[in-house]
Specification:
Length: 497
């Protein structure tokens, strides 16, 4: 049982047997989530994406640790004061998973008795490679003990030992991981081989990815850098906007705004593509697109801050990309705008933002004259079949968020020379924090209006995921701003009969 000084068990929900799940607010040390997010952000920024066709050009003649890339959910295993749990960048805390019993035994026998260990949580699927969809299904709502026992943890890095960040070569870290977990069955080192140069990595890609169907390779070198190597994905996408180049390339297409189509026929903005076109294609496509411009209440700009001109959704193009990322570095969803196209008005209308992906290194392949704007030819499932996209099959109406609730309200007034100053405090509970990491649990909005000031209106916002903390913030805000002469305003609610 976890040490209650580290985890508040009342904040966790029992899911099946000893397995319990909760959010990071259950942790007494709030810095742990920051450590996890910072690690993921740092690793992502240092991992250079490649396709298998780039190996010969980009991989130098150096020594590499080459790992099989596992399609799972990134988590950090935290072992502190005999308490063991996982924490992911989205703030999900898990305890009591079956593999954690073996993890504790191996950690107790090693030097990693107070450590943060990075790995992939995945489902053991003997007949095919694991997919992140499997983890989402089993970890969120396991149906049986057997299903829960299919979860595994593949270790690939160590963040810290005894509270101190790891400052050593990856070769040394790899040895520590092998020493601690090589005997594990349900927790184990990610499959890794030591190779030299591009030729050997190409051969390993052929074996693990091409022949055995692995997601890709993760290639690390202490001297030559880190790489993520995956086969390129091809997607048919809807063209909904364009920008024109400037300067000496005026009269040429700069880039296209692309979307996929949801099952209800709505248009989900997805990516921009500016590479892969010949100069002649840029000229020809621009001429055609200029005759397809329509109205839109939605506006988006490209990397040069030039607004896209929206066009009729008549074209489908094929693109290739290195990767699709469905989570940001904080573990939240990558939300993009969903639009509706009104054919009669020739106009795009805003629906709402919904989760989709970031598209890494998109390239134009060809115009698909054989495909049109419908829920099949440019379907969102091309993306959701590759990565976990929350609510990919739902409509915007089905994802209506819970209504906020007023927790506290107070208005203070102070008359001065025939004018009245007002200080208003409002606290509400969003009821959205569990479904969308962009929302805090509680919000305080403070409004300060003084007609005699040069700037009459000032505002201040404070947020928290803790009821106890937000109450303290409320008391502090009122104490600092309500002094002598201010009176609580109580409106007269009586009515004459």
């Amino acid at each position: 049982m976890p040490d209650n000084s580290i985890i508040d068990l009342s904040q966790l929900t029992v899911t099946l047997g000893e397995y319990q799940v909760g959010k990071s607010r259950a942790l007494t040390d709030s810095s742990l989530l920051s450590h996890v997010r910072n690690y993921k952000r740092t690793v992502a920024s240092r991992m250079y994406p490649l396709s298998d066709n780039d190996i010969d050009d980009k991989i130098s003649d150096a020594q590499y640790h080459v790992s099989r890339k596992i399609d799972g959910e990134f988590n950090v295993l935290i072992y502190q004061d005999s308490t063991l749990f996982t924490l992911n960048p989205g703030g999900t805390v898990r305890i009591g998973l079956p593999w954690m019993t073996e993890a504790k035994q191996l950690l107790d026998a090693s030097s990693l008795t107070n450590a943060m260990i990075a790995g992939e949580l995945y489902v053991d699927t003997p007949d095919r490679r694991p997919r992140v969809h499997d983890v989402v299904s089993v970890a969120r709502q396991p149906k049986t003990d057997e299903e829960l026992s299919s979860l595994r943890f593949a270790v690939f890095d160590i963040l810290s030992i005894d509270g101190q960040p790891i400052e050593q070569s990856y070769a040394q870290t790899s040895k520590q991981i092998e020493s601690a977990f090589s005997m594990g069955k349900t927790i184990h080192p990610v499959e890794t081989v030591s190779l030299t140069g591009a030729r050997s990595i190409e051969a390993q890609f052929q074996q693990w990815v091409t022949d055995e169907g692995a997601e890709g390779l993760v290639v690390r070198s202490d001297t030559a850098g880190n790489f993520k190597i995956k086969p390129r994905h091809n997607i048919d996408a809807l063209v909904i906007g364009f920008t024109e180049s400037t300067g000496d390339r005026e009269g040429m297409l700069h880039d296209l705004l692309l979307a996929v189509v949801r099952p209800d026929g709505s248009i989900h903005t997805m990516a921009r593509v500016g590479g892969g076109f010949s100069d002649q294609q840029r000229k020809d496509l621009l001429v055609d697109l200029q005759g397809m411009v329509v109205d839109s209440e939605y506006a988006e700009v490209n990397s040069d801050h030039v607004a896209y001109r929206m066009v009729e959704p008549n074209w489908v193009i094929e693109i290739s990309c290195l990767d699709l990322i469905s989570q940001n570095t904080r573990g939240g969803s990558v939300d993009r705008m969903v639009l509706k196209y009104d054919t009669s008005q020739r106009r795009y209308e805003v629906v709402r933002r919904m989760p989709l992906v970031s598209v890494i290194s998109p390239q134009f392949v060809r115009l698909r004259d054989d495909k049109t704007f419908d829920a099949t030819d440019a379907r969102i499932s091309q993306v959701s079949d590759l990565v976990d996209v929350p609510a990919a099959t739902l409509t915007a109406a089905e994802l209506a968020t819970a209504k906020s609730e007023i927790e506290n309200r107070a208005v203070y007034v102070k008359p001065y020379r025939g004018k009245t100053s007002i200080r208003k405090f409002l606290m509400w509970k969003t009821n959205k924090e569990d479904k969308n990491s962009d929302f805090p649990a509680y919000v305080i909005h403070y409004t300060d209006f003084s007609p005699t000031r040069k700037t009459p209106l000032d505002r201040e916002v404070r947020v928290s995921n803790s009821k106890e903390q937000i109450d303290l913030l409320w008391d502090e805000l009122v104490k600092d701003n309500v002094k002598k002469g201010w009176k609580l305003y109580e409106p007269d609610t009586t009515t004459e009969q």
